[in-house]
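Researcher: Structure for this, please.
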Amino acid sequence: MKGIKSFLKNLFTVNVGIKLFSLAAAVVLWFAVVNSEDPNQTRTFTSNVVVTNEYILSADNKYYDITGDSSVTFRVTAARSVMDKLSEADFQVTANMENLVDDKRIPIEITSDNYTGSIDIVSKTQYLYVSIGDIKSVQLQITPETSGTPGDGCLIGDITVDPRDVTLTGPDYLVDSIAKIIAEVDMTGATADVTSNTLLQYVDASGNALDVIDLEGRLTSAAVNVEVLTEKELPLNFITTGTLGDELFVKDISSDVGTVKVVGKANVLKDVHSLNINSEDMDLTDRTKSFSVDVDLADYLPAGCSLADEESSKITVEFEIAASADRSFHLKAENLKVTGLASGYRVNFTKPYYDVVISGDAEELDELTESNIIGTIDLDDLKEGTQEVEISFEVPDKYKVKNAVKISVGIVKE
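Model: Predicted structure, token format:
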């Protein structure tokens, strides 16, 4: 026990100066060894700046664009053992929108959560430069358009698009630059209606395509339906009602045009061969002289059809009324056309001639000859023996057969 006490007494009282010097030298030597084994290093890092608290602008319907460099370079000092572990991912480089200065710059803050006490970040105050603008919303119509030429005889009809418009929200300069939203359908060779889910084109006033990926509410496509119609030229057919007095007849009907081009669906026009005009003003009752009628052709079109030239829909129809005269013709029975006679039979006429009265314009009746009058008898289903049949006549349009004519014939076996 006395030995321990003597040892402790000598430890703290004998050669104290030498012992303190030795301790200090040991500490210095330890630091020297450590520093030589794990020295401090300085290294440069580059990271992108992240903007925080952006909601401050959006709450005021504002937006920002970064006008300067969006990355920042800074220096870091740390022991080599720490430095070897560092990467850009260990640093948070932020620009807090709450600290916006003069609406154009934001101070940049650089921190590290992983090595806060082991590193020294060396950086002067740096800024993220931005421009501030207004957020704007606008509703724009989608414009359907066609390109190419449809098939022969086909025309483009109505064009519809769904949806009809789009509401866009974003930077005012971008929204204001949109002059048109186009949905274009290629109609080359089309002969039937075309429905297409078409990509939308956002263009400026010069027709240049715009990048609108940053706009809210933008659409990439729309459904477009293009109606394909056919064109057909139809003659005009004027239908009168009522009758003229005995001594009058309609000598001529004329109009500004004889035919008109009509546009419609092919399945509608395929069975239409004329455009029938039956205006109530074409009633001949009580007419005693020539007259004219104004007609709007659009009123007589088949359902769903239109005129190719809608500006020419109104025409004037002229009705020429003339005094009529009668002329009797004595015609040979043997010149009659015979139809429907059964095989193995022949026909005999009991009289060699028959008479027919033709009415028409007094002056023009002199131009009518026997060769212009074609009479026909139909013996279909008639039995052997003597029969009385009616003669049907074909005469030029400006003449009219006034009386019904019958003739007696004998049907006999050959």
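Researcher: Any notable elements?
Model: The two ends are 175 Å apart (CA to CA). Residues 231-323 form a domain with the RNA Polymerase Alpha Subunit; Chain A, domain 2 fold (CATH 2.170.120.40).
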